Amino acid sequence: MNGIPQANGNRQVRGKRWKTAGLVAGGFVAGALLSLNLSALADKSGKEGLPVEELRTFAEVYSAIKQGYVEPVEDKKLITNAISGMLSNLDPHSTYLDTEAFKELQVGTQGEFGGLGIEVGMEDGFVKVVSPIEDTPAARAGLRAGDLIVKLDDTPVKGLTLNEAVKRMRGKPKTPITLTVVRKGEQKPIVVTLTREVIKVQSVKAKALDNGYGYIRVTQFQENTTQSVAKQLAELNKSGDLKGLVLDLRNDPGGLLNSAVGVSAAFLPPKALVVSTDGRVEDAKHKYYAASEDYNRGTKDDALKGLPAAAKTVPMVVLVNSGSASASEIVAGALQDHKRAVVMGTQTFGKGSVQTVLPLPQGAAIKLTTARYYTPSGRSIQAKGIVPDIIVEETPNGESHDRIREADLERHLINDKEKEAPKEAAKAKDSKDAAKEKDAPSLAPSEFGGKNDWQLTQAVNLLKGLAIMQPKAATTVTATQ
Asked: Transmembrane residues, as ranges (predicted)?
């Protein structure tokens, strides 16, 4: 498996080779992206023939705009907008990347980029927050998943494309921007001023808990995430074999496929199936295993070199929530299917599709959905997500943040294993959540890994064989696996 384009942004893919990378641009992550080689589709589309009548209509519209629009329009702008429209109307994750966005995409997978630190999408013409990234201006200001950004400084968001809105949120470090936010349950818009900064995402954090238990949090799957997880496991194991480990994937929007395979491989037996992908062309059909050739990228050194043997056997709990997407869901699904860990928390985001980035001339690119991925048992995550083995809400009162999911996005791909059933289930849950939260006070921003982290406390209780406290009942589950 070849690497993503390098950070200098000069590397091009020619002929029939496609390369991918995680989209991280201007303080936002527009969907977690997986890495995949794919043959070009030109030959296949050519055999099907060109839609002559539709192309004639396109040419007529183009000519009408050039001749009669109230103001002159450059050819480049018209063509770019046409390309952008074609892609954005396919599904929520296919998009056009201009030169600047493509360069920042490549830099973003290195874990550093400029902006506010929010993962966003588009809904009803407004920017919708999918998740704030930890330790960024957006997170510190209290922005939450589900917030709608309706104004950027004095500019209404309505009428802007997602790329245009993101460009306005980008800017030089230490410069301010004022966001007007509409939040469910709040009577008035919230106005908050953030200061842009260079976002440096530390993808792996770890700490020792009491009495031989460990905690590792993966915030995003970047190039060095597998190595970082191996290093942290070695550090946690220095004082003796771990009694139990919590792997925290909450609010992790995903990232690179090889990193997801590598993190899974750290805990699974060698050669165990981690994930499979399936699309229309042959190169989109692939199986990835817990093997160095499937998680190492452009290096002869094994990213899991020095991994303690205890990593393969330590009792584990994986924490997830509706902000856990794509690569996070791959890891959770693999460990769940192989019965290597107990998955705890709330249902995940449900992004089970693969995006491929095709560089274009003059430095632009398109990001195109090319495949679905499946867990080792053949489950599709698309528009459904991973259902935890044990449901634990974010607070002792049984409350969780109201977050957007894949099934909520317009034009999302259906789950080819369950068709529209997950969508109906999601609607039912949304109605239930709306009724529950109608008069509920706003939740404070989550502090993952802190002393008041309710889900983490329950995960440790499970590992210790203690009672897991639920809002209406208590359940005791032992850590025997």
From this structure: 21-42
Could you read off the pLDDT of 180-205 as tens digits, one per residue?
Answer: 999 988 999 999 999 999 877 789 99
> Which residues, other chains included, contact 369 with Cβ-Cβ below 8 Å and sequence gap of 6+?
90, 91, 93, 94, 353, 354, 355, 356, 413
Instruction: Tell me the pLDDT tens digit for each residue of 257-304.
Output: 999 999 999 999 999 999 999 999 898 999 999 999 999 977 778 999
Token pair for 105: 């995409």
- Encode pLDDT of 101-120 as tens digits: 887 777 655 555 678 988 78
**CA distances (Å), 331 to each of 334, 341, 379, in order?**
5, 10, 13
pLDDT 10s digits, 370-386: 999 999 999 999 999 99
Of 95, 131, 91, which Cα lies nearest the Cα of 409? Answer: 91
Q: What is the largest CA-CA distance in the chain?
A: 76
- Please name the amino acid found at residue 51: P
Q: What is the DSSP letter of 255?
A: B
| Domains in the chain with CATH codes | 115-200 (2.30.42.10), 204-352+371-476 (3.90.226.10)
Task: Give catalytic residue positions.
Answer: 326, 337, 351
| Pairwise CA distance, residues 363 & 354, whole Å | 22
What single letter denotes the amino acid at residue 337?
Answer: D
Give 362's contacts (C-beta < 8 A, 6+ positions apart): 99
- 415 strand-pairing partners: 419
Check if the beta carbon of residue 378 is closer than 8 Å to that of residue 424: no
The tokens of 450 are what? 């802190």
Q: Which pLDDT band holds residue 405 (cuts at 50, 70, 90)?
A: confident
What is the chain's percent helix, strand, coil content, to nearest 5?
30, 25, 45
For the chain, give the percent of residues with pLDDT over 90.
53
Quick check: helix, strand or coil at residue 278? strand
